[in-house]
Write a structure and sequence with these properties.
The strands form two sheets. Strands 2-1-3-4 form a four-stranded parallel sheet, with helices on both faces. Strands 6-5-7-8 form a four-stranded parallel sheet, covered by helices on one side. It is an alpha/beta fold. The longest helix is centred in the C-terminal third of the chain and has 20 residues. Helix content is about 35%, strand content about 15%. The protein folds into two domains: about 150 residues, Rossmann fold, CATH 3.40.50.1370; about 120 residues, Rossmann fold, CATH 3.40.50.1370. The chain is built from nine helices and eight strands. The relative contact order is 0.17.
Length: about 300
């Protein structure tokens, strides 16, 4: 693989770090890794001399396992760090934690943190490749990238896409990255959700004709990141914005970054139905994360 020669970024903190050419290189590399993941022996020695630290200051299942699996498929040495079982609980600062890891010769860091801007802070302190696995309510770039890659793999073209982004836009870091990505690539989208959880600069008028959308992207209600009770109840959200509001779902592709609040954002009939790409998102996420780790792994020390 020689795509790393053309891939320019030395980090992935934000979708802003990528231009259109970088995104295409990332997706073409993901296709190569997807082929590898579909063969009997799935491990390659691409990063056997690289040590990666997964630093998760928030609970995570899908994202953490997806990154760890991607790293191990590339033969990297992997160190998993959890704030719940670390010196952070004893009062150690983020900077002290990072400096200690650097002395252990870490080459690349994947970080999830509850504070917006933390991933960029770590990059500025280390100047080694850093991947943002979610920072506060700011961004989650690999999730947005893998979601669009999933749609491309299912035959959707940018010019034919019209995505309805539903839910808690204000506190969703997935939305923060997805909107930037779709704007960068000229993808049509509409936002829908309670006015109390909108990003005011991104509110768009809602198209009422259901058949104008071909993808509905449902976001989880981020109760744990809301400083105020901006949604009266999950029952009220479901009544006005949940699955039952739309009746013509048979023509629409369903997506969700997970975990799903079943019966709130999505009913099980839709989440598990034939038009759902939710499990495809999980599967394709490993190949996409392999690609970004591989491309950034070539730039260690840069």
């Amino acid at each position: 693989m020689d795509n790393q020669i053309q891939f320019k970024p030395g980090r992935l903190i934000s979708i802003d770090d990528l231009d259109k050419e970088d995104i295409l290189i990332l997706y073409s590399t993901s296709l190569e890794f997807e082929k590898i993941l579909n063969r009997p022996f799935k491990k390659i020695p691409a990063l056997k001399e690289i040590t990666i630290a997964n630093i998760f200051f928030e609970d995570s299942t899908r994202t953490r396992i997806s990154f760890e699996l991607a790293e191990k498929r590339l033969s990297a040495d992997v160190v998993n760090f959890s704030a719940n079982s670390s010196s952070i609980k004893k009062g150690e600062s983020l900077n002290d934690t990072i400096q200690n890891l650097l002395r252990m010769k870490i080459d690349l860091i994947v970080i999830r943190h509850k504070v917006s801007g933390s991933a960029n802070y770590v990059y500025e302190k280390t100047r080694i490749p850093v991947i943002n696995a979610g920072d506060g309510n700011n961004e989650h770039p690999t999730q947005a990238l893998l979601d669009l890659f999933t749609l491309w793999q299912k035959g959707f073209k940018n010019e034919n896409l019209h995505i309805l982004l539903k839910g808690d836009i204000l506190y969703s870091r997935v939305a923060g990255s997805a909107i930037k990505l779709w704007n960068k690539l000229g993808i049509k989208y509409t936002i829908e959700g309670p006015n109390t959880v909108q990003r005011k600069s991104q509110i768009r008028s809602i198209t009422k004709k259901q058949n104008s959308f071909n993808v509905i992207y449902n976001l989880r209600i981020q109760k744990e990141r809301q400083d105020l009770e901006l949604i009266p109840s999950l029952e009220e959200y479901n009544e006005f914005f949940g699955s039952k509001v739309f009746t013509d779902f048979d023509q629409m592709t369903i997506m969700h970054p997970g975990p799903i609040n079943r019966g709130v954002e999505l009913d099980s009939e839709l989440a598990d139905g034939p038009k759902s790409l939710i499990l495809d998102q999980v599967e394709i996420g490993v190949a996409l994360r392999m690609a970004i780790i591989y491309l950034l792994g070539q730039k260690k020390g840069g």
